[in-house]
Design brief:
elongated, two-stranded antiparallel sheet, 260 residues, 4 helices, TolA/TonB C-terminal domain, 20% helix, alpha+beta
Length: 260
């Protein structure tokens, strides 16, 4: 490659030319702005009125051209059927309500204060519970007159019928006999519900026997397998025997009472 070295005179002429060109461009720019200046504020803002827009032209509607048909017009259809309600109504079904089973009450109320104590003869909800009722039968663990389960029978403590208890009317008439009784020994050892099972033939002797048994007889109550006192029924006979003294002694009637 070939290089040409410039002289100082040549470099000076080039610098003057560049300066002259720059000055010419600046003058041209200033002169152009002076000739074409912007408008004054008064001339830039001008007010004028704008009128309303003209109404739109009405749209022309073209009626369709109808060609008459040569066919005859059809007749109207017959009236349709109208729905009417049926007068026959199905009867309301009768739903029978279930009849609750009858509650059989025990003749003797239950003993104890446990939540299951009661006199129901079947198990079920509520405070009553079956299985150990105090009936008058002798099966299982009932409190009847028979030999039931592991219960201990009542034990006599005190009370008796004496010869002096013989009714005067029966003694004067010479009436005697055997009275069959059935009475209930309650849990407190007292006698309740004395009944005559066999009459002596004298209503006075029968009534006296039951009355004195209820007033005087006391027992240790019967107990079940758990040691609880339970009612018990006792069946026994009492005999009223009337005897007179031999003829060698003054006629004085003797009255004797016995337990056969």
């Amino acid at each position: 490659m070939t290089f040409v070295r410039s002289t100082p005179a040549e470099r000076g002429r080039a610098a003057l030319g560049a300066a002259a060109l720059t000055a010419a461009l600046g003058y041209a720019l200033v002169a152009g702005l002076a000739l074409h200046g912007g408008a004054s504020p008064g001339e830039a803002l001008q007010l004028f009125d704008i009128g309303p827009e003209p109404p739109p032209l009405p749209r022309e509607r073209l009626a369709p051209h109808r060609t008459p048909s040569e066919r005859r017009a059809g007749k109207a259809s017959p009236p349709n059927l109208r729905s009417e309600p049926i007068e026959i109504v199905a009867p309301v079904p009768v739903v029978p309500l279930p009849t609750p089973p009858p509650v059989v009450a025990a003749p003797i109320p239950g003993v104890g204060a446990a939540p299951t104590a009661g006199n129901a003869d079947v198990p079920g909800p509520g405070t009553g519970a079956g299985g150990e009722g105090e009936g008058r039968g002798s099966g299982g663990e009932g409190d009847g007159s028979g030999d039931g389960g592991a219960e201990t029978p009542p034990r006599w403590v005190r009370g008796e019928l004496r010869d002096s208890d013989y009714p005067e009317t029966a003694a004067d008439a010479g009436v005697g006999g055997t009275v069959g009784v059935r009475y209930l020994v309650w849990t407190d050892g007292r006698v309740r519900e004395c009944d005559i099972t066999h009459s002596s033939g004298s209503p006075e002797l029968d009534a006296t026997t039951c009355r004195l048994i209820q007033q005087r007889f006391r027992f240790r109550p019967s107990r079940d397998a758990r040691g609880r006192p339970v009612p018990a029924v006792i069946v026994e006979n009492h005999s009223w025997v009337f005897q007179r003294e031999p003829a060698t002694t003054p006629a004085r009637p003797r009255r004797r009472f016995g337990w056969p």
